[in-house]
TrEMBL record:
Similarity-based family: Belongs to the peptidase S8 family.
Lineage, opening ranks: Bacteria, Bacillati, Actinomycetota, Actinomycetes, Kitasatosporales
Signal peptide: 1-26
Organism: Streptomyces coeruleoprunus
P/Homo B domain boundaries: 469-587
Name this protein carries in UniProt: S8 family serine peptidase
InterPro entries given in the database record: Galactose-bd-like_sf, P_dom, Peptidase_S8/S53_dom, Peptidase_S8/S53_dom_sf, Peptidase_S8_Asp-AS, Peptidase_S8_His-AS, Peptidase_S8_Ser-AS, Peptidase_S8_subtilisin-rel
Active site: 165 (charge relay system), 205 (charge relay system), 401 (charge relay system)
Coiled coil spans: none
Domain of life according to the entry: Bacteria
PROSITE patterns in the record: P_HOMO_B, SUBTILASE, SUBTILASE_ASP, SUBTILASE_HIS, SUBTILASE_SER, TAT
Keywords: Hydrolase, Protease, Serine protease, Signal
PANTHER family: NEUROENDOCRINE CONVERTASE 1, PROPROTEIN CONVERTASE SUBTILISIN/KEXIN-RELATED
Length: 587
């Protein structure tokens, strides 16, 4: 099997951009369903971790059996019948498999549990350096039409996206405005650590992923696919090794379900096995435990998006694995399609392949007919995905890790436009709105233009996903030049429309993105080329909400389409100011 670009993360190398330099390279209470039990013994050398699986519900009898047979209960998830046990006994798994009520037992590691698990150190808060970089259109965002989708919605702050990863730098200037500390946690070692800062990045990977999903549209650095939604960090990587063990993933999915995450992004595979095989007792327990946790999260309304992997490997025709286990000594083993990549190949998970610039598979991306669900930009070669890095920095990464968060961001935008959408609805809409992408001249790609092994249903399309249509070329006009809005003053931003004959439509779409504290000060109008004023919204004086990100529909059928239209914004009070960040017209 070809080595992955990174053995654990679904990404490649990163180049941090120095500030001002060229950028070409760049504690809430634990819910009952996830309540952990404190260990009953101190850490000792030789401690290994196990999943002990029983019927969902009361696990107390099995927990008692764990302690009676040389183990300690580290955490338990009664809702799915999973107990995380620690033991130094080499016969613990075999003994527990003979206990009444125990369905499966599996070791989750081939190395010792670190002593840090019993008294975890908090990740350091990185020092921050303000950026001088300003937002600009990036190839990955324009390729999926995210920049056009923002005219429909930039996302709702009621939508929470969980970043299950190495952690997130919540202090970063482009992440802090959208960071949700109340629902962030560390799940390293398999039980929730709700201490402030436990969620912080122990690498750079999770911060980069978070920026692609929801970096703020604030004039600094970069813009995420869904810059108006909330980001929650669920750190499932352990420090020092940055490994993502099964108990950590289980904890993360349970947390996602109990904390109302509409979407989670999963840019990793579950260590130490790249593929878990059901004919191995340990790996079978891993499959079942993580599957139950994912199903629990989905049952609570959470859709999981996952990266397909970076080995240029056909997931529909598995033969060998020479990289596992990656926490001790890897061995080469023969495998079949019954062996699965977790979480990418779990039922209900949306599996994402990576694309380079244009309609091409990234050179490293895994593929597989009826395994890949959708494609998205992941970068390749000199065209990397540019996003946030800890400490106020920015840089490029390539990988399916970078593709998956584009899809997670689009799913968050869809949930923002229609909060009633279920995970099944989101999956279906992602598929139906994707842009069909044909196989290249490559015999490994099988299937049809509508669905194939390289791109699944096609490349994700943010605009179609949120509006159901793509504007016809020549009918979409945008002004992204900032215009200041002063106290007790009027600001106007023009758009000159050319090439559109006849009158404007009866359903002219006016997309507005205004950054302004206390929007109750604002009155918005559209001014036609002949000077006719069409009121858009006079916000209530007591509306203390910040910013306006809305699309209005105007009956402008009596107006000639061609000419200069203006967005007029009146500030009718003192103290709060802002700017017209961007606005657009769709004819």
């Amino acid at each position: 099997m070809l080595p992955q670009i990174s053995t654990r993360f679904r990404r490649a190398a990163v180049t941090a951009a120095a500030l001002g330099a060229a950028v070409a390279f760049a504690a809430p209470p634990v819910p009952a369903a996830a309540a952990p039990s404190a260990p009953t013994a101190a850490w000792a050398a030789g401690t290994r971790a196990y999943l002990v699986i029983t019927a969902p519900g009361d696990t107390s009898a099995v927990r008692s059996a764990v302690t009676a047979n040389g183990g300690t209960v580290f955490a338990h998830y009664d809702a799915i019948g999973v107990v995380v046990a620690h033991s130094t006994s080499t016969t613990f798994a075999a003994t527990m498999r003979g206990i009444s009520g125990v369905q499966q037992v599996g070791a989750t590691r081939t190395s010792d549990v670190p002593a840090d698990a019993y008294n975890p150190a908090l990740p350091a808060a990185p020092s921050q350096t303000p950026t001088t970089l300003t937002e600009s259109n990036r190839w990955d965002m324009t390729q999926i039409k995210a920049d056009q989708a923002w005219a429909v919605t930039t996302g709702s702050p009621t939508v929470k996206v969980g970043v299950l990863d190495t952690g997130v730098d919540d202090l970063h200037q482009d992440i802090a405005p959208n960071f949700n500390a109340a629902d962030s946690v560390s799940c390293a070692y398999g039980r929730p650590d709700t201490r402030a800062g436990a969620w912080r990045d122990v690498d750079t990977h999770g911060t980069h992923v978070a920026g692609t999903i929801a970096a703020a549209k604030n004039g600094k650095g970069v813009i995420g696919v869904a810059p108006g939604v909330k980001i929650s960090s669920v750190r499932i990587a352990e420090p020092n090794t940055a490994l993502f063990y099964p108990e950590n993933t289980i904890c993360g999915f349970m947390w996602a379900g109990d904390h109302g995450f509409k979407v989670t992004n999963n840019s990793y595979y579950t260590d130490p096995w790249m593929f878990n095989c059901p004919d191995d007792a340990d790996q079978a327990a891993i499959i079942e435990g993580v599957r139950r946790a994912q199903a629990y999260a989905e049952g609570k309304g959470s859709l999981q998006i996952a990266a397909a992997g970076n080995s240029n490997y056909d997931l529909a025709n598995k033969t060998t694995d020479s990289t596992s286990p990656n926490d001790s000594t890897p061995v080469t083993r023969n495998i079949t399609n019954a062996c699965i990549d977790i979480p990418a190949e779990l039922p209900g998970v949306v599996t994402v392949s990576a694309m380079g610039r244009g309609n091409v598979k990234a050179s490293y991306s895994n593929f597989g007919r009826d395994v890949i669900d959708i494609g998205a930009p992941g970068g390749d070669g000199s065209y990397g995905v540019y996003s946030t890095l800890p400490g106020g920095k920015y840089g490029n990464k390539n990988g399916t890790s970078m593709a998956s968060p584009h899809v997670a961001g689009v799913a968050a935008l869809m949930a923002s436009t229609d909060p009633a959408l279920t995970p099944a609805d989101l999956r279906a809409r992602l598929a139906s709105q994707a842009t069909d992408t044909a196989c290249p001249a490559d015999s490994r790609c099988t299937g049809t233009t509508a669905r194939n092994g390289f791109f699944g249903e096609g490349q994700v399309d943010a605009l179609k996903a949120v509006s159901g249509t793509t504007p016809t070329p020549g009918t979409y006009f945008e002004n992204t030049t900032d215009v200041a809005i002063a106290d007790n003053a009027t600001a106007e931003s023009p758009i000159t429309v050319t090439g559109v004959s006849g009158n404007a439509p009866a359903a002219l779409k006016v997309g507005v993105d205004i950054k302004h504290t206390y929007r109750g000060d604002l009155v918005l109008s559209l001014v036609a080329p002949d000077g006719t004023v069409y009121p858009l919204e006079d916000f209530a004086n007591n509306d203390g909400t910040d910013n306006v990100a809305k699309t209005y529909t105007v009956d402008a059928s009596s107006e000639a389409a061609g000419g200069t239209w203006k967005l007029r914004v009146q500030d009718v009070a003192a103290q709060d100011t802002g700017r017209i960040d961007a606005w657009n017209l769709t004819f």
